[in-house]
Amino acid sequence: MGTVLRVAAHSHNHAHAHTHDGIDWSSRLDSLRQADELDAEARRVVARRLVRVLPDNPTVLDVGCGAGGMSVALVEALSARGGGTVVLVDAVPELLDAATGVARSAATYETDTTTATVRVRPVLADLATERPVEIAGPAQLVWASNVVHHLPDQRAAVAGLVEAVAPGGWLALAEGGLSGKFLPFDVGIGEPGLQERLTAARDQWFVRMRENTAGAVRLHGGWNLALSAAGLVDVTAFSYLVDHPAPPKQAVRDWAVNQLAWFADVAGDALHPADRRTVKQLLDPQDPAFLGLRDDVFLLTANTVHLGRKP
C-alpha cells in the first residue's frame, strides 16, 4: 500500500461523495495540488523515463489524473521529444477540470529549439463501471497512480487498463512503495514513535475501506503477478524517492499539517486517546509543538511503479 494514501485519500463519508469508495475527492483538491507541487521534480524524472521508449507522437493515458501533477510531467516529457496526445481520465469533474487546466498550460511548454505540440483531451469516466479502451484507448502508455486500489475489483481493473494499451505499448501502475514519513521519532510530547502508530492505524482504516466498498474483491499477492496474469510481458518495477529533508520549506510544513490531520481523521478510534491528544497539540497553531512552525518536519517517501508491455 505504501504511500498510496499519502495524497490519495480522505474519508469523511460525505453523503455527496463522488466515488464508490466513499471518499469526497472534490474536497481534497487543495491537498492534492499541495502534494503535486512537492512531488513535481520526482515525477518529471519518472515521466521522461516512461516516454523515452515510446514511438513518435504517442498517445498517453493518465487514468485517475487527480489534480494533474503527473499530467503536467507527461505533457512536458512529450513536448521535449516532439509532441503527442495526453488523455486525462477522472471520475470527479472538479479534479478533471483542474488537471486539464494545468496540463493545457504545460502543453505550450517550450523546448530549447521549438514549441512542440501536445494535445490534451479530458474524459470524464468512472473506471469502476466504464472500460478505458472504449473511452480513451488504445494508447502507447497507460499511467495509473494510486487509483486501482480504490476500485472494487483490482484484478479486473488491471485487465481493463491492459485492454486500453496498444500492442507493444506499456502499462505503468504506481502502487505501493514505502509509507511516507514526516515526523521525528520523538516529537517532544506524548509517547515516542507516533508516526509508526499513525501508519498502523491508517493501514487498519484502509482494510476497512476496502471491506466496505461494494463488490470489493481481495487482490492476493503482488502487483507484478496481477500484471502478468493480465497478459503483460517484461514485467518489472522501479521506485522513486520524494525527499524534502529538514529543515523544511514552508510548503512541506503545510503539507505535514494537512497530512497529520488526515491521518488522525481516518485513524479515529484505532488511535490511543493519549496519541489523539498529542496530535491535537501538534495541529494547534497556538501550541509550542505546532507542526506548521517546526524545523524538524520533513517528507520522505518511496513510490513504486510496476511496468509491463503488451505483446
From TrEMBL:
Domain Methyltransferase type, chain residue ranges per copy: 61-171
Pfam families recorded: Methyltransf_12
UniProt keyword list: Methyltransferase, S-adenosyl-L-methionine, Transferase
GO BP terms, alphabetized: methylation
An MF annotation (GO) of this entry: methyltransferase activity
InterPro entries given in the database record: Methyltransf_12 (IPR013217), SAM-dependent_MTases_sf (IPR029063)
Record protein name field: Trans-aconitate methyltransferase
Organism: Saccharothrix texasensis
